[in-house]
Design goal:
heterodimer; A: 256 residues; mainly alpha; 11 helices; elongated; B: 347 residues; alpha/beta; Rossmann fold; Alpha-Beta Plaits; 2 domains; six-stranded mixed β-sheet; five-stranded mixed β-sheet; 15 strands; 39% helix
């Protein structure tokens, strides 16, 4: 069982990771951190952003947000794995080999988490200098961040899988995928704080799961965990479990 | 009875009994009570028109679909209870393309070999062997999504031979292949069969089935309507008919065709209801009769009397394609089977 799953994870990584994906996963967040972060800083001036009881610079705030953002970006590759397997006949081929649907689903889950964590790890490494003054590493904080990244990867990976299994045409898949991920990206607290926003926009932020993931991972990085963080953990955990169950059902029912 | 069944299941590579598949309630059976056995080390041809139930049967045998009813034993083991164990010993080339878009042919073959649990050294050897055998060396470093449909098909078929297997399912494997690639594949399969491989083969190309298969089952509307060796099928379902093909140096006139018709009619016996004459172009005539050997002398006499000169003459058995068409177009047989709900088609 474990051997088959590991083989599928390796296969997913080999089949899914190409140069374009690496550029997508590394270049975009770097552009956001260094170009957007440093370009907006003069506009913002000395004004700091509050995270819990801590005040941080906009660049620190943005870099910490990009960690959760990149976990979402990375895990969305799960959708393209399923999409390609479905379109190119590899799903059916794998099932007539030594693999079952259970292997395939768990293999995808592990792949999503690995890619999500690796994508977030890349941003932590690259962005560390920009937030080193504000960061406060504690074991408790790290566990919150890692949990947020894992649960975020599961949520967005599962979400991408649902889209891939339900949608048939490439054009529709592309439009819906891009549209939704645009909403996830920019109507979230990844780029700007949610407090102080007009109510409708703030509501949009809090129906967006990326907000919870970014908030939790940010709270972990800066060790600013409070009661609201725990509520966010609870909400996103329930959401991720639900979406994962739907994705599993979609994969089980996927026509071969 | 149970001992006998068990003996049959162990004796054959595939043993299917009373298999039925229904996709939903109130929907006609896609596969309707079929029974057949496939011997070890043979090629079993499974032929039928579109929508006859070929692919459904193959999908059930390769564990992609669950049967609605019936038993399937592969290598003497119950397929529904030993899926994983059986799947480790089979290979499947499905009708639809399957490939890893982003990878080169060599990388994709390597990954496929790895999924089959082959170590690096064996993978390397096998990849070189496959690329060489299937004339794919020039495509080694080409990405799968840059290949033509035919090239992709060749890679897909070749890929399956990277791993050891005892049973290979081929679902119309030559679709999209050029004639030389097709012959290369069929000859390679023949060699593998000589070495002990069993092949379950579906195709629409009758020449291929005739060239490759030891036994052929013809399925139509979910039921097996004929089962035999290719020669046996031609003997049984060709009803002993033969065709006499005559090509003349002269243009044939209507009067000669009428005379020919009269001569053949006189020679017809009661079973000769299938006799007919086809005029192919202006110089060639094809006569289909049951008693070709008896009729030929009268035909030649008629030709001589009419002062015609023959360029070529041949007597042939009907092709497998003609037999296939006569079976699947035989409404009488079909109606008889559909009226006989309890009947099981046994091979």
């Amino acid at each position: 069982m474990i051997g088959s799953i590991l083989l599928l994870v390796y296969r997913n990584l080999v089949a899914a990771i190409d140069k374009i994906f690496l550029v997508w996963i590394v270049a975009f967040p770097i552009v956001y951190i260094f170009v957007v972060g440093y370009s907006y800083s003069p506009l913002i001036g000395d004004q700091s952003i509050k995270i819990g009881t801590l005040s941080v610079t906009y660049t620190s705030f943005l870099t910490a947000g990009m960690i959760g953002f990149n976990a979402m970006n990375g895990s969305s590759v799960a959708g393209s794995i399923v999409w390609n397997d479905k379109r190119n006949g590899m799903f059916q081929q794998l099932l007539v080999m030594r693999f079952s649907k259970v292997h395939y689903i768990i293999g995808n889950l592990v792949t999503i988490i690995l890619i999500g964590l690796a994508s977030a790890g890349i941003i932590i490494l690259i962005g560390f200098p920009t937030m080193s003054e504000d960061i406060n590493i504690t074991l408790w904080g790290i566990s919150y961040t890692v949990y947020a990244l894992v649960i975020g990867s599961i949520f967005f990976g599962s979400f991408a899988i649902i889209l891939s299994t339900k949608i048939r045409s490439s054009e529709t898949h592309s439009v819906i995928n891009n549209g939704l991920f645009l909403f996830f990206s920019f109507a979230s607290s990844a780029f700007y704080p949610a407090h102080g926003l007009p109510v409708p926009l703030s509501a949009a932020f809090y129906i967006n799961p990326l907000t919870y993931i970014v908030d939790i991972s940010r709270a972990g990085i800066f060790s600013q965990i409070d009661a609201f963080t725990n509520i966010e953990v609870l909400i996103i955990s329930i959401l991720a479990a639900t979406v994962f169950m739907i994705a599993t059902r979609s994969m089980v029912n996927m026509k071969v | 009875m149970r001992t006998m069944l068990s003996k049959i299941q162990n004796e054959y590579c595939i043993s299917v009994s009373n298999l039925k598949k229904q996709y939903g309630k109130n929907i006609a059976y896609a596969v309707n009570d079929i029974t057949f056995n496939v011997e070890y080390g043979t090629v079993f041809g499974f032929l039928g028109p579109n929508g006859a139930g070929k692919t459904t049967t193959l999908r059930i045998l390769t564990t992609l679909l669950r049967p609605s009813y019936g038993s399937i034993y592969v290598f003497g083991k119950d397929l529904t209870k030993n899926q994983l164990e059986i799947k480790k010993r089979i290979g499947v080339v499905s009708q639809n393309p399957s490939f890893e878009t982003n990878l080169t042919v060599e990388r994709a073959l390597d990954l496929y070999g790895m999924l089959w649990g082959l170590n690096k050294k064996i993978r390397k050897e096998k990849i070189n062997e496959i690329l060489n055998t299937f004339d794919l060396e020039s495509l080694r470093n080409v990405k799968n999504d840059e290949l033509s449909i035919g090239q992709r098909r060749r890679v897909q078929v070749a890929r399956e031979f990277i791993h050891e297997m005892d049973l290979l399912f081929l679902d119309e494997p030559t679709v999209g292949l050029d004639p030389s690639a097709r012959r290369l594949l069929l000859d390679y399969i023949k060699n593998q069969v000589k070495m002990g491989l069993t092949v379950f083969f579906t195709t629409h190309i009758m020449e291929e089935a005739e060239y490759l298969c030891d036994k052929i089952a013809i399925i139509d509307r979910g039921k097996i309507t004929a089962f035999d060796t290719p020669t046996g099928l031609k003997q049984k379902h060709g009803k002993g008919a033969k065709t006499i093909e005559l090509t003349f140096k002269d243009i044939l006139g209507k009067s000669f065709i009428q005379l020919l018709n009269t001569t053949i009619s006189k020679k017809q016996d009661s079973d000769n209801s299938n006799s007919y004459i086809d005029l192919n172009g202006t110089h060639t005539v094809t006569i289909t009769v049951n008693n070709a050997e008896e009729i030929i002398s009268d035909v030649l006499k008629l030709v001589y009397e009419n002062g015609l000169e023959i360029e070529s003459i041949s007597i042939n058995r009907p092709s497998l394609e003609e037999v296939f068409l006569s079976i699947v177009n035989n409404d009488d047989l079909r109606n008889k089977q559909s009226n006989d709900g309890e009947r099981t088609t046994k091979c």
